[in-house]
């Protein structure tokens, strides 16, 4: 089985979701199914069908999370150092066209969230950054044409 790189925070977030699904959502949907069954004819019972669909989603997500967590290889970025970009790095960039600065952390596929500044190791930007150093310029293909970024700072925390 191939290991999936992940930060400790990302693994904790997935474990929290799994725990919530098992301890809160699963029992709630079982109660909803039982309540819907009490209403009688199941063939025309929208509440019953909605609860069964929700149960199916929850069970599928539980299996998915268990699989992801079991194959996770947790990497602690705070143990890393240097000026080259690696998994877990916080990278401060400046867009050479707009002069806008952003900071991103390179994380595992299952923990990426661009709104939080977490980019997947498999994203085009992360692929372009890996192995580069402070001061380097990278070109990243984007829908509106290639974008160029200069690496201002690389930290591990």
Automatic annotation (TrEMBL):
Protein name: Transcription elongation factor GreA
GO molecular function: DNA binding; RNA polymerase binding; translation elongation factor activity
GO biological process: DNA-templated transcription elongation; regulation of DNA-templated transcription elongation
Keywords for this protein: DNA-binding, Elongation factor, Protein biosynthesis, Transcription, Transcription regulation
Residue ranges of domain Transcription elongation factor GreA/GreB C-terminal in the record: 83-156
SUPFAM superfamilies: FKBP-like, GreA transcript cleavage protein, N-terminal domain
Organism, as annotated: Swingsia samuiensis
Superkingdom of source: Bacteria
InterPro entries in the cross-refs: GreA/GreB_C_sf, TF_GreA/GreB_CS, Tscrpt_elong_fac_GreA, Tscrpt_elong_fac_GreA/B, Tscrpt_elong_fac_GreA/B_C, Tscrpt_elong_fac_GreA/B_fam, Tscrpt_elong_fac_GreA/B_N, Tscrpt_elong_fac_GreA/B_N_sf
Functional summary from the UniProt entry: Necessary for efficient RNA polymerase transcription elongation past template-encoded arresting sites. The arresting sites in DNA have the property of trapping a certain fraction of elongating RNA polymerases that pass through, resulting in locked ternary complexes. Cleavage of the nascent transcript by cleavage factors such as GreA or GreB allows the resumption of elongation from the new 3'terminus. GreA releases sequences of 2 to 3 nucleotides.
């Amino acid at each position: 089985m191939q290991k999936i790189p992940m930060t400790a925070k990302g693994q904790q977030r997935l474990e929290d979701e799994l725990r919530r699904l098992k301890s809160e959502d699963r029992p709630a949907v079982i109660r909803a199914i039982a309540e819907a069954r009490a209403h009688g004819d199941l063939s025309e019972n929208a509440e019953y069908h909605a609860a069964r669909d929700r149960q199916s989603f929850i069970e599928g997500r539980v299996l998915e999370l268990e699989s992801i967590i079991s194959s996770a290889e947790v990497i602690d970025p705070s143990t890393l150092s240097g000026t080259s970009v690696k998994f877990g790095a916080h990278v401060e960039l400046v867009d050479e066209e707009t002069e806008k600065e952003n900071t991103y952390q390179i994380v595992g596929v299952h923990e990426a969230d661009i709104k939080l500044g977490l980019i997947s190791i498999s994203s085009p930007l992360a692929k372009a950054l890996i192995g580069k150093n402070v001061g380097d310029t990278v070109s990243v293909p984007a829908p509106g044409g290639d974008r160029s970024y200069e690496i201002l700072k690389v930290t591990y925390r």
